[in-house]
Design a protein that fits this description.
- By secondary structure, the protein is of the alpha/beta class.
- The chain is 31% helix and 27% strand.
- It contains seven helices and nine strands.
- Strands 4-5-6-7-8-9 form a six-stranded mixed β-sheet, with no helix packed on it. The chain has a three-stranded parallel β-sheet with strand order 1-2-3, with helices on one face.
- Strand 8, helix 7 and strand 9 form a beta-alpha-beta unit.
Length: 172
């Protein structure tokens, strides 16, 4: 969110001054609010996001900064993969537009060496159900799962958790 932007930039700068792929899962303030400061203070090459738009000031400001900065916008397309220095990103969702920003979240499977993780944004049970219908358990299997919608009861169904079978789960 916007109120965590300074801390986010400081944290990232502790590791790097550039970002190859920034994934903005969906246009809710708590998922895009700090992006303006990140883009303005670090070298961001690409932003992956859905075609969903929001009429809040935060989203309008973000689009303006993206346009002014020359950052390349990549529409999240299921099946697309991206490689950044041996880190492979694969877009798993959104598989459908349920008319809800959370369910239209970009879900990404990340592999780096022997470690895999699934980042779900705020994807909830309908998006998880469609992923279960689309992918095999092996395609969803991951060492780490960032629980959907901050670990709320609207996501992380028992069936999805069984398919992912994570060693660790993270709730933000």
């Amino acid at each position: 969110p916007t109120d965590a932007a300074e801390e986010t930039v400081r944290y990232i700068r502790g590791y790097t001054d550039s970002i190859d792929y920034m994934i903005l899962t969906h246009p809710h303030e708590d998922h895009i609010g700090g992006a303006v400061k990140v883009i303005n203070n670090l070298q961001v090459e690409n932003v992956i996001m859905t075609d969903a738009s929001n009429d809040v000031v935060t989203f309008s400001r973000l689009i303006g900064v993206i346009e002014d900065s020359g950052v390349r916008v990549i529409e999240a397309q299921v099946g697309n993969t991206y490689d950044a220095d041996g880190i492979v990103l694969q877009i798993l969702a959104p598989l459908a537009d349920f008319g809800d920003f959370n369910e239209y979240s970009v879900v990404t499977r990340v592999e780096y060496g022997d470690v895999s993780l699934i980042l779900t944004g705020d994807a909830e049970s309908r998006s998880e159900g469609l992923m279960l219908e689309t992918y095999t358990a092996g395609e969803l299997d991951a060492d780490i799962l960032k629980l959907g919608h901050h670990g709320s009861h609207t996501s992380s169904t028992p069936e999805f958790l069984a398919a992912v079978s994570p060693r660790w789960s993270i709730a933000s």
